[in-house]
């Protein structure tokens, strides 16, 4: 069962990273369009946001399961706490982005805070993975 959870955890990491990177590429292309983004880009933006959300939720579900089963829910130190904090911020950004995109009228750009939060969550992803490697080495 642990092998399955680790496999699903890595799959969640791939989904989250792929959705985030693809969403960033769509944002760059939308800016280059010079006017309103084409409808296909708008549809992709929401699809990639959903892929990212599914990946992050899968990471949380499998990560919590592995932590509870393997470590009995024990506190694993400061690096682990920082990893959880960074992962929580990523989750909050992804959920807020999904809500913001659902509320944004079609054809309009996402809110300005979202354009700044995307790169922040990307950076936090690197931090989270580095801390996980450190904690679970």
Q: What is the succession of H and E elements?
A: HHHH
Distance between the termini: 20 Å
Structural class: mainly alpha
Rough outline: elongated
- Amount of beta strand: under 5%
Q: Summarize the biggest pleated sheet.
A: none
Radius of gyration over all CA atoms, rounded = 16 Å
Number of helical runs? 4
Fraction of residues in helices?
over 70%
Average per-residue pLDDT, rounded, comes to 87
Plain-language structure description:
By secondary structure, this protein is an all-alpha fold. The chain is built from four helices and no strands. α3 packs antiparallel against α4 (112-135). The mean pLDDT is 87.
Can you summarize this structure?
This protein has helices at 2-32, 39-71, 78-103, 112-135.
What are the key terms here?
mainly alpha, 83% helix
What is the fold's blueprint, element by element?
Elements (H helix, E strand, L loop, with lengths): L1 H31 L6 H33 L6 H26 L8 H24 L2
Helix pairs in contact: 1-2, 1-4, 2-3, 3-4
């Amino acid at each position: 069962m642990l092998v399955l959870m680790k496999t699903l955890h890595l799959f969640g990491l791939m989904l989250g990273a792929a959705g985030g990177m693809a969403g960033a590429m769509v944002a760059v292309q939308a800016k280059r369009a010079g006017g309103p983004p084409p409808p296909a880009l708008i549809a992709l933006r929401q699809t990639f946001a959903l892929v990212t959300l599914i990946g992050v939720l899968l990471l949380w579900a499998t990560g919590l399961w592995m932590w509870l089963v393997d470590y009995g829910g024990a506190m694993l130190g400061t690096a682990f706490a920082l990893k959880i904090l960074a992962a929580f911020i990523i989750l909050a950004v992804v959920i807020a982005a999904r809500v913001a995109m659902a509320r944004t009228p079609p054809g309009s750009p996402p809110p300005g805070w979202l354009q700044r939060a995307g790169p922040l969550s990307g950076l936090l992803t690197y931090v989270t993975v580095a801390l996980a490697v450190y904690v679970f080495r």
